Amino acid sequence: MTRLPQADLEAAAAERRAQAAAARARRVERERELAREAARWLGDDLVDGPFEFREQFEVVVSPGRAHAFLEYLRDGLGFTMFVDCTAVDYLKYEHGEHPERFAVVWTLANLDQEAYLRVKAYVDEDDPVIRSATDLWPGANWAEREVYDMYGIEFSGHPNLIRLLCPQEFSGHPLRKDYPLRGRGERDNFPVIRRGVEERY
């Protein structure tokens, strides 16, 4: 009686892990080179970077050149996919030096090379305005509205910059570090909308 060959499950798992590690190393190297090329294009407008944190790369650009840089990344380096736009409030942040309190952060993807890149631009606390990227990626619309709503950072040229999560009458920006955790009593003034459902119970 002929016995079927037994699969070596441990060896197969080890091979898969090795293949995954090699693929990750190739991706990181591609992202590193793209980040370096992006930084070279910026020249004197490069504020910081490119630097790596947990195999992710970031380039810091001056706010006045951010839009042109994003356009170059899309058209020149193939970062055609807008992934996200968010912000950071560095008030009370204990790590590192930051030239401004607020920073806008974009995450972009190059699908052809399976690469990601983060772009950061600091904005003035007293006049937190930066140019909208909606003309480059229409999908930036909602992300920029959320940043405006939560942080109070304005995006010039946005087609409809109104609050996204809070009511239009809401005062303040809940993700700013100086905003109280329990709010400033805004919820006490919200009108109660009766839906009629509770009347049945």
Tell me the count of domains.
1
Q: Total number of β-strand segments?
A: 7
**What top-tier CATH class fits best?**
Alpha Beta
Q: Could you state the CATH homologous superfamily?
A: NADH:ubiquinone oxidoreductase Nqo5 subunit
* Helix percentage: 25-40%
Q: What would you call the structural class?
A: alpha/beta
CATH architecture: 2-Layer Sandwich
What name does the CATH topology carry?
Beta Polymerase, domain 2
How large is the count of helical segments? 3
Quick structural overview:
The protein has 201 residues and is α/β, with parallel strands linked by helices. It contains 3 helices and 7 strands.
Descriptive account of the structure:
A five-stranded mixed sheet has the order 1-2-5-4-3. Strands 6-7 form a two-stranded parallel sheet. The protein is built from three helices and seven strands. The chain is α/β, with parallel strands linked by helices and 201 residues long. The protein has helices at 9-42, 66-75, 140-151; strands spanning 46-53, 56-61, 81-89, 102-110, 115-123, 129-131, 154-156. The protein has a single domain, classed as 2-Layer Sandwich (Beta Polymerase, domain 2).
Topology:
Layout: H1 9-42, E1 46-53, E2 56-61, H2 66-75, E3 81-89, E4 102-110, E5 115-123, E6 129-131, H3 140-151, E7 154-156
Parallel strand pairs: 2-5, 6-7
Antiparallel strand pairs: 1-2, 3-4, 4-5
List keywords for this structure.
single chain; 201 residues; alpha/beta; Beta Polymerase, domain 2; 5-stranded mixed sheet; two-stranded parallel ribbon; 3 helices
